[in-house]
């Protein structure tokens, strides 16, 4: 019985010894893959950080453009108001000039 147990133990040891290099190689490969995945994850995190920074810059530019558009709208409204005032003043001056011309004609015809 002891011999049988010893034989089984020896067989298990020999089998484990035979499998050990293969297991070691598999473990090393998993380790390399894990390191590669860790490196890839670090790179992805770095890229995500860069992308977030770029997005922040784009948002800043967008907000600046939004402010410029608002300023341009205000300027356009002021220009349109000034144009309307100038047009009204011109029409008023034109009407007054026509009225003077009629008076002058009336005075000239009365003489």
SSE blueprint:
Elements: H1 2-110
Task: Describe the protein's architecture and organization.
The chain is mostly helical and 111 residues long. Helix content is 98%, strand content 0%. It contains one helix and no strands. The protein is rod-shaped and about 155 Å long. The N and C termini lie far apart (157 Å). Residues 1-40, 90-111 are annotated as: Disordered. Residues 1-13, 21-40, 93-105 have a biased composition (Basic and acidic residues).
Keywords:
rod-shaped, about 110 residues, mainly alpha, single chain
Give the CA-based shape.
rod-shaped
Strand content: under 5%
Mean pLDDT level: 89
Counted beta strands = 0
Helix content: over 70%
Write a concise synopsis of the structure shown.
This protein has one helix at residues 2-110. It has 111 residues and is mainly α. Residues 1-13, 21-40, 93-105 have a biased composition (Basic and acidic residues).
